[in-house]
UniProtKB/TrEMBL annotation:
EC code: 2.3.1.286
Alphabetical UniProt keywords: Metal-binding, NAD, Transferase, Zinc
Active site location: H127 (proton acceptor)
SUPFAM superfamilies for the chain: DHS-like NAD/FAD-binding domain
Cross-referenced InterPro entries: DHS-like_NAD/FAD-binding_dom, NAD-dep_sirtuin_deacylases, Sirtuin, Sirtuin_cat_small_dom_sf, Ssirtuin_cat_dom
Protein name as it appears in the record: protein acetyllysine N-acetyltransferase
Enzymatic class: transferase
């Protein structure tokens, strides 16, 4: 028996669609990283059900809120540091290597796509990256370990070592503007693809969740792979509601 014979019909259909496509764009959300130990903040019992998210304006205006944000960051850091790419990340990296996937657009901030081998210039991070920080005034990069040392010494969120400005993880907070360059890159990639794979996203956070419909309007086929139903399922050419890693893993055997 071949690989295709062992797969459920939706997974077989996914492999056929990827084989037939020439310009694939992958869009990922938290669901692809849960098997790696990264929490899904929105799920029951997730961080946002325990703590109210800190709004960007509160972070900017309150030293107390900045300290609380860093306290939460350091509490979650062991899980982020221990995480390694999962089966889904590795399958996507394979598709990038063989030239099948042009770009990976992600809502995730965990850096796992890059760790799996996807080149930096192929990853479009809509919500930033939590593995480092930067100054909101001068843009200087700051390493998380350096900030932790300063925070533990004083109990206060440290300022930029170069200009004294406010330092924040390189992520997009509630109330913070989306990164314009990344949004433009994501739009261009979406408009150029012939297959759009939305993986592990509830597709409720806009404007990012608008990309699947943008691809569909431009003639691309749309696949939604998520454990739970989404509001965009009726627009998809294929919906797969199964374990993400198990469904994507066979794609690692594809050749261009």
């Amino acid at each position: 028996m071949g690989l295709m014979d062992d797969l459920e019909p939706p997974a077989r259909a996914l492999i056929r669609m990827v084989r037939d496509a020439e310009r694939v764009v992958v869009f990922t959300g938290a669901g692809i990283s849960t098997e790696c130990g990264i929490p899904d903040f929105r799920s029951p019992g997730g961080l946002w059900t325990k703590y109210r998210p800190i709004e960007f304006q509160d972070y900017m205006s309150s030293a107390q809120m900045r300290a609380e944000a860093w306290r939460r960051k350091f509490a979650m850091e062991p899980a982020f540091r221990a995480a390694r790419p999962g089966r889904g990340h590795n399958a996507i990296a394979h598709l990038v290597r063989i030239g099948k996937v042009r770009n990976v657009i992600t809502q995730n901030i965990d850096n796992l796509h890059q760790m799996s081998g996807v080149p930096e210039n192929r990853v479009i991070e809509l919500h930033g990256n939590a593995t480092y920080a930067h100054c909101l005034d001068c843009g200087l990069r700051h390493e998380i370990d350096d900030i932790r040392m300063a925070f533990e010494a004083t109990g206060e969120a440290p300022g930029c070592r170069a200009c004294g400005g406010i330092v924040k993880t390189a992520t997009v907070s509630f109330g913070q503007a989306m990164p314009q360059e990344e949004m433009l890159r994501a739009e261009a990639a979406t408009e150029d693809c012939d297959l759009f794979l939305a993986i592990g996203s509830s597709l409720v956070v806009y404007p990012a969740a608008g990309f699947p419909l943008m691809a569909k309007r431009n003639g691309a086929r749309l696949v939604i792979l998520n454990r739970e139903a989404t509001d965009l399922d009726p627009y998809a050419d294929l919906v797969v509601s199964d374990d993400i890693g198990s469904v994507l893993e066979p794609l690692s055997t594809l050749n261009n």
